[in-house]
């Protein structure tokens, strides 16, 4: 049972009751009506507030639905697969690209641990992807996913962390795209590239052998001349020796003086004695020339590729140009402008090959030129030595100029050029710290130039 109280409200109600019993019903009704009106007014206010709130809420709800539809639409339109996981690795959402790629439904994966969705063999690769920490926060990896029949191709995966409003780690978003096809294509490309490099090396070797062949032909041509006159001289000397021996025998046989004089005349002993000096000198010169050529040949030995030595430019250019010109067997106006005492450090055999290539190209280009002229110069400019080889041929076709340094680019007929000369030369010059440049001269002809650090 509730107990009687003496609160202020209770005493107010008591006095109202007293007023009604003593003063009559009219006052009582008026006051009641006023109170009711007040209550109804308040109710109206509350009701209209409620209506307003409801409209607001509906509005907000529509906006929220629209935003959610937008986000869903974006996620679904992403062509990469997308997996959202919580901090423990439980799958919270996947997009349709994922379902499509794996042939699995949302219900099949959402709520399961990601470890059960991937290929069991890739478990170790998953660990770093679920804990992307540090900078940059995105972690890259590769995964295969489990399918009904086994597992998918390899996917490249990026894992980005998710944080709540207080910055706490709450999970990751994994995005991925298949790379199996790409990887196979890359491997095939890599293999083809290696194959090409091997073929190129082989061709370079062949080109080296070819230039060695040209060199040997040039050397043979060079040796032929001195050897033939050494040979001729020796023949004459043999004949002279026979005459002298006969004459000396006659002297020692104590023949008559008149007979000896006649014999001396018939054996032409005086001319023989006179001829001896030039004959021996000539033979000596021939022998020296042969030994010079052999010395040059040894200096240019191709087995020394890669060795670095001090190279005298004057000597290098003289031998290379001369040999190139001799092998081509053409008459040209050759102008050499070589400063003396220029030295660089490099590989003489390789640099020789560059000069020979450039001179041979120039001579080939001037094939139809009426008065072919080749200017080869080497001059010091600051700490560098500038090499220039200019011809007065037709110049390089403007459509070809950007291709001439490419391997196998040639405008020569099959069998006349491999198109490797400039490519090899470019590589050699670059290895020596320079750059081989080609340009056409304003008044016709082409110039090839490069600068190398002076030693
Ligand atoms: N001095 C030059 N004047 C005009 N064109 C040139 C000159 N030098 C080179 N070229 C052009 O550059 C091309 C490539 O030269 P490169 O030396 O690489 O090969 P190639 O001479 O054709 O063949 P290889 O050197 O193997 O015998 C030549 O075919 C030619 O068209
Ligand atoms: Mg060439």
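-> sequence recovered:
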């Amino acid at each position: 049972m509730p107990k009687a109280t003496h609160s202020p409200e209770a005493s107010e109600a008591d006095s109202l009751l007293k007023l009604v019993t003593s003063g009559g019903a009219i006052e009582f009704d008026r006051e009641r009506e006023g109170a009711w009106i007040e209550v109804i007014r308040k109710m109206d206010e509350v009701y209209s507030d409620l209506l307003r709130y409801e409209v607001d809420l509906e509005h907000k709800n529509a906006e929220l639905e629209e935003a959610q539809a937008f986000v869903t639409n974006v996620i679904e339109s992403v062509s990469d697969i997308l997996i959202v996981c919580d901090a423990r690795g439980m799958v919270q959402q996947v997009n349709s690209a994922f379902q499509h790629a794996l042939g699995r439904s949302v219900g099949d994966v959402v709520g399961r641990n990601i470890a059960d969705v991937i290929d069991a063999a890739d478990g170790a690769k998953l660990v770093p992807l679920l804990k992307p920490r540090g900078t940059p926060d995105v972690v890259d990896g590769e995964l295969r996913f489990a399918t009904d029949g086994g597992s998918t191709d390899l996917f490249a995966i990026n894992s980005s962390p998710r944080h709540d409003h207080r910055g706490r780690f709450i999970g990751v978003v994994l995005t991925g795209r298949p790379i199996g096809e790409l990887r196979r294509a890359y491997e095939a490309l890599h293999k083809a590239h290696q194959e090409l490099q091997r073929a190129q090396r082989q061709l370079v070797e062949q080109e080296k052998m070819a230039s060695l062949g040209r060199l040997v032909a040039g050397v043979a041509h060079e040796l032929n001349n001195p050897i033939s006159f050494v040979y001729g001289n020796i023949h004459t000397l043999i004949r002279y020796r026979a005459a002298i021996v006969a004459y000396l025998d006659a002297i020692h046989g104590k023949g008559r003086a008149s007979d000896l004089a006649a014999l001396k005349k018939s054996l032409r002993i005086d001319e023989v004695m006179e001829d001896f000096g030039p004959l021996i000198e000539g033979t000596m010169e021939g022998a020296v020339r042969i030994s010079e050529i052999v010395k040059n040949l040894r200096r240019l030995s191709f087995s020394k590729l890669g060795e670095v030595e001090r190279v005298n430019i004057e000597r290098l250019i003289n031998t290379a140009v001369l040999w190139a010109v001799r092998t081509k067997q053409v008459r040209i106006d050759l102008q050499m402008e070589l400063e003396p005492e220029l030295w660089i450090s490099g590989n003489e055999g390789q640099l020789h090959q560059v000069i020979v290539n450039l001179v041979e190209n120039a001579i080939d280009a001037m094939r139809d030129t009426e008065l072919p002229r080749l200017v080869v110069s080497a001059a010091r400019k600051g700490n560098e030595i500038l090499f220039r080889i200019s011809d007065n041929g037709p110049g390089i076709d403007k459509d070809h100029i950007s291709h001439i340094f490419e391997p196998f680019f040639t405008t020569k007929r099959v069998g006349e050029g491999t198109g490797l000369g400039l490519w090899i030369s470019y590589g050699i010059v670059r290895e020596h710290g320079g750059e081989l440049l080609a340009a056409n001269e304003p008044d016709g002809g082409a110039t090839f130039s490069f600068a190398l650090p002076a030693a």
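The chain has four domains: 17-74, 78-178, 200-299, 302-453.
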